[in-house]
């Protein structure tokens, strides 16, 4: 059963991202929204950790949060989602686990 | 596809707005929302006592309009609500306090409603935090 | 067939109503006889620490709610070995009989349940 993990806390002040990364199994997805998109900031350990995820893990981000924060030079594997895309992803995976 | 949406954050949290946009996209995509369940600080969405500066978005009002327009089943956890001063007429009378929930869009009920929604839905989607 | 639900509790017991409200979801589900699991993760493992004295903060004891879990039919209780180790807690001194899972065990646990709430 695949899981789409959703994060919205900044990974620089919070342990959710690291806890989540350890749980991921092939077929799972990681959706960054809110301040969690700061994990994509270049030159950081968090960005490096995301790049190290196996290709079998989907990396997604909510486009509006990314654009609002002016993040550029994004990883090639990153899929940007609008809200219809968010809904589609929540259906594509068997379940959604939001790290509240 | 049937969705249960659970909200855990107050109206001023970015995740409240995110949940509303998601819910709109669910309905626009031809899917169904079996229930919206509000827990923890999300119960504040039901309060009529929120006053926002005119130039700020009133997330609670947007949610209420969305719920009324689409006749959604919106349940506020009663224990979480009482703890945070969110009372409808019945609870206000019971506890001898002023009522802060005016709209009939919101139902105050127990956590069993969250579990029931989860059983009725194909997907449970939670929103909370920042 | 009922959908199974895994509740992941990550809050320390003394950081506000978060831990109690997570437990309340589990207890409510147990009362409806639903297939439920409860996982103590990250700071949530502090809920299981021995020797806590809630009276010191004049707070209600969370232990009563924790001890009620099996009575409400919530018997699938898990804790992350890594979270315990990181926080200097030994699995021998916990307040509840919980199954200790390593990282692989945690991943498998998430695979098993239909839905998850992590708070």
From TrEMBL, chain A:
Spell out the protein name for this chain: Sulfurtransferase complex subunit TusB
Q: Does the keyword Transferase apply?
A: yes
Q: Which InterPro entries match?
A: DsrEFH-like, Sulphur_relay_TusB/DsrH
Q: Which gene encodes it?
A: dsrH
Cellular component aspect of the GO annotation: sulfurtransferase complex
GO terms in the biological process aspect are: tRNA wobble position uridine thiolation
| Gene3D superfamilies, per database record | DsrEFH-like
* Key word Transmembrane helix present: no
The lineage's top-level taxon is Bacteria
Q: Which NCBIfam families match?
A: sulf_tusB_dsrH (TIGR03011)
| Coiled-coil parts of chain | none
GO molecular function terms noted in the UniProt entry? transferase activity
Query: What keywords tag this UniProt record?
Result: Transferase
From TrEMBL, chain B:
- Keywords on record: Cytoplasm, Transferase
Q: Which InterPro entries match?
A: DsrEFH-like (IPR027396), Sulphur_relay_DsrE/F-like (IPR003787), Sulphur_relay_TusD/DsrE (IPR017463)
What molecular function terms (GO) are annotated for this protein?
sulfur carrier activity; sulfurtransferase activity
Q: Which domain of life is it from?
A: Bacteria
User: Pfam families this protein is in?
Assistant: DsrE (PF02635)
- Main subcellular location: cytoplasm
**One GO term describing the cellular component:** sulfurtransferase complex
Location within or outside the cell: Cytoplasm
GO BP terms: namely: tRNA wobble position uridine thiolation
Q: Which family does it belong to?
A: Belongs to the DsrE/TusD family.
User: What protein does this entry describe?
Assistant: Sulfurtransferase complex subunit TusD
- Organism, scientific name: Pseudomonas mangrovi
Taxonomy of the source species: Bacteria, Pseudomonadati, Pseudomonadota, Gammaproteobacteria, Pseudomonadales
Automatic annotation (TrEMBL), chain C:
Keywords of this entry: Transferase
Record keywords: Transferase included? yes
Q: Which domain of life is it from?
A: Bacteria
User: TM segments?
Assistant: none
Q: Which SUPFAM superfamilies match?
A: DsrEFH-like
PANTHER family, per the entry: PROTEIN TUSC
Supply the NCBIfam families for this chain: PRK00211.1, sulf_tusC_dsrF
Q: Which family does it belong to?
A: Belongs to the DsrF/TusC family.
Protein name stated in the entry: Sulfurtransferase complex subunit TusC
Q: What is the lineage of its organism?
A: Bacteria, Pseudomonadati, Pseudomonadota, Gammaproteobacteria, Pseudomonadales
